[in-house]
Design brief:
single chain; about 160 residues; mainly beta; Pnp Oxidase, Chain A; 7-stranded antiparallel beta sheet; two-stranded antiparallel ribbon; 1 helix; 11 strands; about 45% strand; elongated
């Protein structure tokens, strides 16, 4: 994968925003998430700086690096052919399953499906999974919304 250069708009036309979500949980499945979603939100990091006021430094305080926090990933309106996301949530909520964490890759693609950038999330814990209203005319299993908390985020 080549480095992303945001200044070159002609080389990276995001006319159709495409992405893939790949979630792996060792004891459930190599690919728990074999789904496509219409929305992916919550890729965020924030830091709470520590402010120190030094005697004799009248120009202002010194800001030190503080703890880093991460957002909660929200996936909306997904279609899948398996039930592994539901099984992962059940396994985590079962007695003794609280340590069952996942790793996820969010891959952003251009209109021609070439990889533009990739995020890696680690320490995923499912927080919410919601089914849509069921309809006999749809032949696939659907997920209205899924939320996962994560412990780290990095750009690959």
């Amino acid at each position: 994968m080549t480095a992303f250069d945001a200044s070159d708009a002609a080389a990276h036309p995001f006319t159709a925003f495409n992405f893939e979500v790949d979630i792996k949980v060792d004891s459930v499945s190599d690919r728990v998430c074999m789904a496509t979603f219409s929305e992916c939100d919550g890729l965020e990091m924030s830091m709470e700086p520590k402010t120190i006021r030094e005697g004799g430094r009248n120009a202002g305080p010194v800001h030190m690096v503080g703890p880093v926090g991460f957002g909660e990933l929200t996936l909306k309106r997904g279609m899948t052919a398996n039930v592994d996301l539901w099984r992962w949530f059940e396994a985590v909520s079962a007695p003794g399953g609280g340590g069952l964490r996942a790793t996820a890759d969010i891959v952003v693609m251009a209109a021609d499906r070439t990889v533009q950038m990739q995020f890696r999330l680690e320490g995923l814990l499912p927080v919410k999974i919601k089914a849509p209203a069921l309809s006999a005319k749809d032949g696939q299993l659907a997920i209205e919304e899924m939320q996962v908390a994560y412990e780290s985020l990095r750009l690959l």
